[in-house]
Write a structure and sequence with these properties.
Five copies of one chain form a homopentamer. By secondary structure, chain A is of the alpha+beta class. Chain A has an eight-stranded antiparallel barrel with strand order 1-3-2-9-5-7-6-4, surrounded by five helices. Chain A folds into two domains: 8-111 and 150-288, 2-Layer Sandwich (Alpha-Beta Plaits); 113-148, no CATH class. Chain A is 39% helix and 27% strand. Chain A is built from ten helices and nine strands. The interface between A and B is large, with 42 and 42 residues.
Chain lengths: 289, 289, 289, 289, 289
């Protein structure tokens, strides 16, 4: 039975963010051959978890004391995510990592407008809501939507140098209660929000994931760009949007510099800041904007 | 003396959720015979605490850094719950487990509509409220209710792969105060909420337990399903309900993958993600939906 | 100078709640003679602090991970309380106890209605408010009140098996501000609250203590009963009271099973759940309901 | 340039509250000569920091688990305060003290009414606000005020047995916003508040210090009395004041028993509760009420 | 595409605040030659990070228990900031420093009024908003602004003895929502705020940095002065401003005494409070007021 008040959402990668502090001094005290062995084990494991059909992986050097290293795991489903977590937790490198924070979510593409459009079409075709025929047609229309946005649902993690992350929820306050708004009003507000973000097309890549039922906020937002000021400007400008100013609640923000898993030894050595990634996004990631 | 403003509730299992992080690296460093000995002790103890008249037990691999292992203890009463906690705390495995969070509650079946119906019937029979005769009739009617829902009060823990848990309370805000609403209004809102959940019948199994007086929120909610997206959709959709959008406050959410206590050695070894449980729910659990 | 807007309160025992986790595994690793020695030292100290004119003491096995052991200290005054705390802190048992939480308060019997009655009587006698004569008469009337409720002010800790504790304050919100209400309105609300609690007379014993100026909330509430469901029902039912629903703010709740200090070795051994206390309340405690 | 909307304040001692837990068991395990050496070093240092022109010092045995020992440092200015903190941090006693909390503030005497009076006088003398002549006259009047209250600004720490401390701020809520009130209304409310406190003249000694810009709340309040119930009654009664009930926000409260630095060895030994200080306040402290 | 509702901001240094506690007792136990070696390594590294084109650095002795040492890092961009953090984290001194808090931000000069002025000029020139010509003219005007305030964007850290720091955000409450105000109203409020701060010109130096997207609040504020009472008075007085009283939310405050990196050995030795810096601000810093 379809609830006409609730917009459909389509789901892609299962995502786990894990933030660690790194015991740089303890690591530096290890013998070089011990460092090498641990690095080899780690790189082998990360290799399994990066860039495939079943997993993807990003590493970021986090700025400030919230943590030193962020691992972003993508997995095909919760089974694959649990597997990735277990592989990682068994690595010897963990003796030098202290977990600080994490976030569990599922990549989501919201379909506010598409849901409204499908409702309208089915109504125009004279189908009775939630009749067997209606449900069949609805499911078919949704499957077509899913095919359309599949590249966004299953895009690799954007390969850009600067990154920030924050969780957010919609407010349920005395006056401003997102969940008490009519469906049409929510559609209007989300459309205006999307329009505001368009000015940043090509400058930043956004990944929205849903955590309702899985973690403490309703969504997690990852932003990637080649310029950290773009991240700041985008978030600041959208804060003046009607939907953000009245209905958005934000959690803790963190930021950092993405580097390739292959550069991990440089990060661990502390002798040089890892170089910038090649700033060439694959087509899938471009589609995810 | 019966307070006509307060709905009756019926109580089943006493429940303790305990969340732990697992020292996977410390465990891996143990000699195999030491691991075997600890596993044997643990499995013997868990065997006592699973699937009987006096206790039941579920284990979940938790996703993300809030913890690694969730133990859900069911017990016949607080004495049995205290016993389960003490048995578990004495196990050697505790040297490799760090407690992170817990929740104390009692499985509850709310009887908003039944309470209203009994009131009406007794009134129709011409009984004076809170007279001796009225109280006798009320208690008898309630005992009949209890017999009716007994299977739900004493159902085993649902045997489904994916699980999430969150605590919640009803709001007592300036504008939206559940406890200041008339009884009839509360009945109406709860009935609408129940209707919304019906779309998920068979797809998810819900266990509501009350923690008023025992822990920091008023209720704990466990949801089990064969598909984690179902958990997310159910919670998201109900958030648009009138009662949830205006009166619900939610605590911290966590999610994970249930496995059988017999699979604990696999979890501890980290060599393989525990396999899916047989997804066959006993009749009692089915009744608990 | 008496402030006619402020109800009088009468004060009895100074109270300290101390919550600890117990290092059960560390304790179990001790040689039996070492355990015996520590137990003997502890029992001697607890003997001094239990059931006398100057001190009383209760121990509870706490359910869940907030802690394992709650010590409730009663003392004649703050000097005696400081002494109890210092005696306890010096015990060797502390090597196996980790402090988790505490609460400092003074047993209080509020006299909303009595204060109003005395005001009225003095007014009827034609005394000028806050005149020397008025103050003398007021103080005498209050001393009579104190004699009347002395048994409640100095009752021993109720000897019942199940216990819960929570701190609370009165709200000072935009709309609902207890401290901005007229004195008469506060009297009316407290009287209705007391009437609601009467249904539980004999089923539960309540101890209210004030912590204004001493700890983070305004009151601490201890409830004792022979049935934990009674605790839950009492708190749930009172939450619908006008004064609770609009003006009460609640802190963290915890619950457990009271046992006799003499049973501490059983608790420490983990071999058996301590047996139920003799459920016979002394007269003083009965009076405290 | 003087802002007519802002009351003048006069500033005395720079104050640092430092709260510690004491490792009583670790201390007790030390050899007596080691204890003696550490005590001697500590007493020499505390002697430098107590009762002089440049520093004063109070020690309190704190009740409950928030901490065991409170050190209240007074210093002539921030340089002297930094010096006191550094001297204290170098003591060997720190191996047995664990810092738990602290508060940085400056003793403040608010001049709401005096500011209003000076404004009025300068206006009556026909001076133009913020003209050079006006500013000269204002500064002179304020210097006279400072001379008048100098004894309160530089009073030693009150020598009374029982003490409590809490931080507080003025609310800036939707409805009740202290900083948006007209100056005259703030004057009226503060005058009424002061009148309410007068009933406790001689029974309690209050020290207000400001922490705007220095620590997390706007003020810190220390109260001293010979009877802890007086502390509780004073705070409770003032909570019904118009300004407190609507505009005050309170932080965490703690309470304890003041003792002389010379009694520190008794505290450390745990063999006896330190005796009561001589309850004779010097004139300066009396003036600070 | 330019959003006319959002004021332009210009960005300078990337900033990292890092707060540490110092293990003074552990340090004191080191052999003098070990102390010397660590000091030398530290001073060499700090020398690289202070006072250049690419980095600047300030050290403060923090008052109270939030921490002992604050390092304020300025860097040309996020790459340079990541480099500074990595250099610092590898120092042996870290064995005696415990990280407590941090803040990531970018020095910002807001251009509310300039943005409004440019809009007006372009409109007066008859340009169509967001036309290619308009955007070119706008970008040119903004580049001129940036040249004008360049000295403030790239000023060295103010060389004054007393310092305080706090993060802040603008409120998005039911009633007072900064982000829902019209652009003109925001301009008016910010102009009035700036006028209020003018009374402190020359007495205090303020550095505003933005953390939207990077850390948990929207701005960080550093204030420097030769007198700590000036810091307190400035913050207190501005709190009565319309924009602060209604729209500002403040985080945690901390304060301390700035000293030169070359004085670090004195700080570490604990034998003397570091002397006051030469209070001569370079021209750039003066411009930053």
């Amino acid at each position: 039975m379809h609830n006409p008040n609730v917009p459909e959402t389509l789901h892609g990668w299962s995502i786990l963010h894990r933030l660690y502090t790194f015991d740089r001094r303890g690591w530096a005290a290890l013998a070089p051959e011990r460092q090498s062995a641990i690095q080899s084990e780690t790189l082998r494991a990360l290799g399994q978890l990066e860039g495939g059909e079943r997993h993807d992986l990003a590493l970021c050097q986090v700025l400030g004391g919230k943590g030193d290293l962020m691992f972003i795991h993508y997995a095909r489903d919760f089974e694959a995510l649990a597997e990735a977590e277990m592989i990682f937790s068994g690595l010897e490198l963990n003796d030098y990592l202290q977990p600080r924070d994490s976030y569990v979510s599922v990549l989501e593409v919201g379909r506010h407008r598409a849901t409204a459009r499908i409702h309208e079409e089915l109504h125009d075709r004279g189908l009775e809501a939630n009749s067997a025929e209606w449900i069949g047609a609805f499911d078919q229309a949704l499957a077509e939507e899913e095919a359309t946005v599949s590249a966004r649902l299953w895009a690799q993690i954007p390969r850009r140098r600067f990154w920030c992350f924050y969780p957010m929820s919609k407010k349920r306050d005395d006056t401003w209660n997102w969940y008490a708004l009519p469906f049409e009003e929510r559609c209007r507000l989300m459309a205006a929000h999307g329009a505001g973000a368009k000015a940043y097309h090509g400058l930043a890549t956004q990944v929205i994931s849903s955590s309702t039922g899985f973690d403490d906020w309703e969504w997690g937002v990852d932003l990637f760009s080649d310029d950290p000021i773009v991240l700041k400007k985008l978030i600041y400008e959208l804060r003046f949007d009607e939907v953000s100013s009245h209905y958005a609640e934000f959690g803790s923000f963190m930021t950092g510099l993405r580097f390739s898993p292959a550069q991990l030894p440089e990060f661990l050595s502390g002798r040089a800041v890892p170089r910038l990634l090649e700033v060439k996004e694959p087509e899938l990631a471009a589609a995810a904007r």
